[in-house]
Amino acid sequence: MDSAISEPPARTPLRRTAAHGLKIVVVGGFGVGKTTMVRSVSEIRPLSTEETMTQAGAGVDVNAGARFKTTTTVAFDFGRISLDEKLVLYLFGAPGQERFWFLWDRLFTGTLGAVVLVDTRRLADSWYAIDRLEHHRTPFIVARNNFGPPAHDLADVREALSLPDEVPLIDCDARQRSSSKRVLIALVDHLYALSAARESAR
Ligand SMILES: Nc1nc2c(ncn2[C@@H]2O[C@H](COP(=O)(O)OP(=O)(O)OP(=O)(O)O)[C@@H](O)[C@H]2O)c(=O)[nH]1
Ligand SMILES: [Mg+2]
């Protein structure tokens, strides 16, 4: 695990005041930091399904651009965060490798919103995630993970992803709890704004 991530307590009981649970998924291409984000922000020790990458995956697992990786998610990550007295987010991190993408459609069931994590060095890897979310009509925001000094303005990233103006696009560092939390709050704000707009259109 990344040394910058503090280990969450083994067991944090759910508050008795918790009234609303929201299922949130973190998606994106291979190695963009999905597991890192769920781990950094979860208040329980997250369930992870990391497996060591071996030579057997050579030619099957495409790890170009992420050669530092030694493990990969083979099912999903699961974590939890209480945003306030009543609101609890249940976080699911999707597996990034193409051979596990068939799991995504199931993972999206009952999902209120999603975070698409992107690594701007490998932007094309995000297209599939955005395509599936649009297909499922799942609201989402996009977060650019910090893999070094940004080479592009966010406006350029928006254009390259053909993101409509109403989809929030922000910077983050998935290793930092405060930053990952800001991403989740941005998503919840976006969900509230969409639901308020729907209400007023009635
Ligand atoms: N520099 C930097 N490294 C990061 C950041 N987030 C994650 N990493 C590193 O990137 C690597 C990949 O992170 P993971 O969280 O495993 O990525 P993933 O998207 O879950 O990968 P798959 O599940 O295999 O698709 C790890 O070695 C992390 O330590 C970040 O914000 N900055
Ligand atoms: Mg992962």
UniProtKB/TrEMBL annotation:
InterPro entries listed in its UniProt record: Gliding_Motility_GTPase (IPR052705), Gpn (IPR004130), P-loop_NTPase (IPR027417)
Keyword Cell membrane part of the UniProt annotation: no
The keyword Iron appears for this protein: no
CDD domains: Ras_like_GTPase
Keywords, alphabetical: ATP-binding, GTP-binding, Hydrolase, Nucleotide-binding
Molecular function terms, GO-annotated: ATP binding; GTP binding; hydrolase activity
Superkingdom of the source species: Bacteria
Listed Pfam families: ATP_bind_1
Membership in a protein family: Belongs to the GPN-loop GTPase family.
Name of the protein: ATP-binding protein
Organism of origin: Amycolatopsis albispora
